[in-house]
Amino acid sequence: MTVLVTGFTGNSGYEVAQSLRNKGLLFKCAVRNTEKAIKHYGNKYDFVALDFADPDTFKRALQGVNQIFLMYPPGGSLRFAEFLEQAKQMEVQHITYLSVKDAQFLPFIHHYKNEKLIRKSGIPYTFVRAGYFMQNLNDFLREEIKENRRIFVPAGKGKTSFVDVRDLAEVVSLSFQDPQLHKNKAYTITGSEALNFSQVAEKMTHVLRVAISYTNPSAKDFKQYMVSHGKDKGFINVVVGIHFPTKLGLAKGVTSDYQKVTGKQPRKIETYIHDYQNFWK
Ligand SMILES: NC(=O)c1ccc[n+]([C@@H]2O[C@H](COP(=O)([O-])OP(=O)(O)OC[C@H]3O[C@@H](n4cnc5c(N)ncnc54)[C@H](OP(=O)(O)O)[C@@H]3O)[C@@H](O)[C@H]2O)c1
After folding, report:
1. What is the mean pLDDT of residues 186-213?
2. pTM above the 0.85 mark?
3. Distances (CA, A) of 92 to 1, 66, 74
4. Residue at 281 is within a domain
5. Domain of residue 95, CATH code
6. Is the CB of 161 within 6 Å of ligand 1?
């Protein structure tokens, strides 16, 4: 069995690859630019070119693949339905799709539509509907934390159900290890507690031993600041959109699906902050 890991250079794909490797499962890493990937990661991985916007890359990327870790990247013009069609034609046996918590109630988002497409394809699937990535703190929130010692995001006082991407990756790799057990199941994977960003700032202050605050900007102030710092408008709107449900108090649900699937407790945010501390130094 060989798994195709899409989005390998991103948060989830990379951790899925690590988890598959730890379990001794075979996998190939899909990237848009194989040369760049080899330069960056060396020869430890088997890279194959895949661009969801370019159907000419689909067949070759899927050759010899039995299972797919499928993520949906940001950006438009993706030929996702065609990719699924090709996977079906090439008799892929299982897709584990990275979706988002509550996707089933949100018909206007990509994940709702993609889940529907995957179901329609008839390929056995597992949906991993994820809470808010802890790794956002070392990704798009990193610069402000590092430079200005603040979490700068328009999330109000609402709580969100943080999850460590490494825990998601564990669930994903288990779905490939025993696809029959996880066939046509949907899991909502969160950490064990919902937190607001003031609490996260306190925890960062405690673990990193440096004062971090949460400044709770309005969406308008956030946008103005980000535009004045040259950030892309599309990206800014996505960040505002992601945090709006949190602000409304709609993102705080936690589940025990991680414990049920893995038999373990999910990582706490303190562990995540400790493990990733070099990102903010
Ligand atoms: N952040 C959260 O809190 C959160 C929570 C729940 C669900 N999610 C979902 O997680 C997904 C994002 O996952 P992530 O954070 O792991 O990704 P990420 O770190 O944003 O990385 C994006 C990945 O997609 C690849 N990519 C971009 N355009 C592509 C294309 N046209 N064809 C093929 N690959 C392409 C990138 O590869 P290149 O190196 O080629 O650019 C990169 O590996 C989204 O669907 C999001 O909705 C996120």
Report:
1. 98
2. yes
3. 10, 5, 24
4. no
5. 3.40.50.720
6. no
